Amino acid sequence: MTKFSKTVLGVLAGAMLGGAPVVSAQAEGWKQAGDILLRGRAVWFKPTESSHTTRPSGLGGEAEVSNSLVPELDLTYFLTDKLAVETIFGVTPHDLVLKRSTLGDVDLGDVWLLPATVTLQYHFDPMTSAQVSPYVGAGLNYTVFFGEDAPGAPSSIAERIHLQNSFGFALQAGIDVPIKDNWFFNLDVKHVWLDTDLRTDLVGGGKVDADIDLNPFVVGFGIGFRF
Length: 227
What we know:
Number of domains: 1
CATH class: Mainly Beta
Shape: elongated
Helix content: under 10%
Number of helices: 1
Strand content: over 45%
C-alpha cells in the first residue's frame, strides 16, 4: 500500500470514528428507502500509474498522467434504509508525458476522461450523536477517453495519440454529516482499477505504444441535499 493510500484511509477512518461518542448500533438513521441524495463535490483524481512501453523495443520510459481537481455531481437512490445505488457525473483533464525514455522526457499531449462509475452502497447506522452516517460501496467503472490532443512538431515528436476505453472495478468509502434540515456534508474516497493502451503516432512516421495502469484514487468532498 502506498503512503498516499495509507494517508487517505487514515483520514477517512479518523473522520468516521472520531469526534462525538459512539452510540448504539441500533440508533435510528436519517436515511430511508426511497430517499434521493444529490451531492456536488470537488474531486481530486490522482492516478497511481505504472506503465511500460511495448513498441518500439528498447525505448524504455514510463507514461505519466497528471493529477486533476474538478467539480462533480453524484446521485444516490436508496433501495432500502441501508442499501443504495450511486452514479457519478464528471470529466477530468490530464497531461501525458513519457518520462525517462531513450528519447528523454517527451510531451505526449493531453486527454479528457469520463469515468462513469456505478456502486452499490451499504449505509451503516449513525455512529455518533451528531448522526454521522458512514457507508461503503463496490461497483463497476467504464472510463471513456476523449479529446486526445498531441502537441505535434516542433514542440513534440508526438503527432497523434489515442487511449483505449477501459472497464474495471471500484471500491468506495465515505461519510455523510447532517448540517441543517436536508443539507449535509460529504467526504468520499474511491479506488478505481483502470488500465488502458496508449497508441502514439510520431511526427515523420513511427509509433510508440504503452500499457498504462492508472488505478486512480478519487477523493471528493462537498455538500449534498436529501430529497
